[in-house]
Each structure stands twice: as structure tokens, then as C-alpha cells.
Amino acid sequence: MIDERTLKSAEVLFELANAEDIGEGDITTNNLVHPDIIKTAVLISKDEGIVAGLPIAKMVFKKFDKDIEWNEKLPDGSRIKPGDILVEFRGHYRALLTGERKALNFLQRLSGIATYADKCMKEVEGHDVEIMDTRKTLPGYRFMDKYAVRMGGASNHRFGLYDMVMIKNNHIQVAGGIKKAVEAIRSKIPENIQIEVETSTLSQVQEALDAGVDIIMLDNMTSGMMKEAVKLINKRAKIEASGNMTLKRIHKVAATGVDYISIGALTHSVKALDISQRIID
Q1: Helix ranges restricted to H, the chain
Q2: pTM reported for the whole predicted model
Q3: Model pLDDT, residue 1
Q4: Which of 39, 73, 135, 136 does the annotation list as catalytic?
Q5: Do residues 108 and 130 both lie within one domain?
């Protein structure tokens, strides 16, 4: 089920999308279609993948016709193929036409994210590893993008700068080292906030271990170096692999024994799933 903050985020984005799309009105539909005409439509898949965003599409159409009848044939997270009907809905014809592109823009993007997440999950089957997203989301779309990642079977990393400490290379430089950075932060945050440190060498991994961090990120390491790092850490911290994580590479990375693989491409390089609307009566 979609969470409340994702729906609220979608409503805010809808207002922006609606303003840029409609302006002073849909001059084509409003001059051709009588306001009393009722029609039935379907959203139909023209592609293979995972559907995500149907509750958001419903929200869009209800903005134009609050009494629209909405009958989902497949729930979010379902595996779909060309020809599958995702939902059948009935309402004022003007609402169906004016809401169409906005609803599909949301639905196609989120389904594309969910589909890629599912492909990544298939690549690491048999390994005890989580596929995770990053903060590389389309501005304003973070809650929706991360919802789509979950619909594809993958997991969410931190949502923002506020819910987890991530000490990256620039932080380490300004603090004068990993140990100093961790000590400075640990003295100022609640105990339940996790601390993760980005490392790119085995000596940095050792320094992060000595500092007692919760998660060690292995950033842009070769698979061979990752294996050495996993052996060095020896389950004393969780391990995240990050950097240049392609679909072709992640199976080999999962085999090194890391706990998490974070993939920016889940959300920053989306290929929209092909879904269309069709009027059926």
C-alpha cells in the first residue's frame, strides 16, 4: 500500500504539472467534448515490467472528476506484460482526456524505476544482499521514486540528509580524518542514528573499523579489493558497495559478501515503461 507522505508529495507535484500542462484550460477537449458525456477507459501495458504508481494515477483523475469509478485489475508491484489491463475506470470524458498525460507521466516513470529495481534483484538472486537506491532522485520526486524502488523489490537507503550520518570524502578532509569526523559527530547526535563512512582504500576501511562505525561504504573499489575489505571487516560492521554499479556487474559484487549494493541508476537513469490509455466505450 502506498504511504501517506508519498501521496502528499504526488499531490504537490500534480499541482505543478497541472499548471504547466493546462494553463487557462484544455482548449481542445473543452471545445469538442460536452461536459456531461461519460466514458469508460483502461490503462493498458504495452511493455513488460513491474507496475508502480496506480494510486497516483487515480489521484490525478479524481482531481478532475471526484466521482470517478476506479477498478484496478492488478495492484502496484505486479509483473505485467504487453496487453495487460492495469485498471478500468469510468467518469466524465473531459476528465479522462485532460488527466491522461499527467497520470501517465507519473505512472510510466515509476513503473520504469520498479522494473529496473526488479531486474537488479534478479541479478543477485542466491546472495544475501540488499539492492538499495540513493539520493540521486529527480528533485521533488524522492518519495515517489523511492516508493517505486520498493515496488520493484529493492530497498531504500536514507531519504535525506536528516535521517542518517554519511561521512563522505569531503567531510573527512575538513575534519582531518575519519576518526576525528566520527568522534565529532558521535558527540552531537542521538545514539539511534547510524553512522556510515565512505572509504576507497583498505587503510580507510581499517580506520572506519577502529572508529566503530555502523556501516562502511566501499566506494568505487574493484571486486578483488571488495573481497579483501569484506575479509578485513569480518562482520564487525555492515558493508555497502557503491560506485559504477551496473546491471552487468552487480552479480559479481554480490558474490564478494557485501550486505548492500547501492545503485544510483535505479532513479537517475529511468527508462519509462510504455503504458497507454484507451477509451473502450
Answers
A1: 4-22, 27-32, 54-64, 93-123, 142-151, 169-175, 178-186, 202-211, 223-233, 250-254, 265-268
A2: 0.96
A3: 83
A4: 136
A5: no
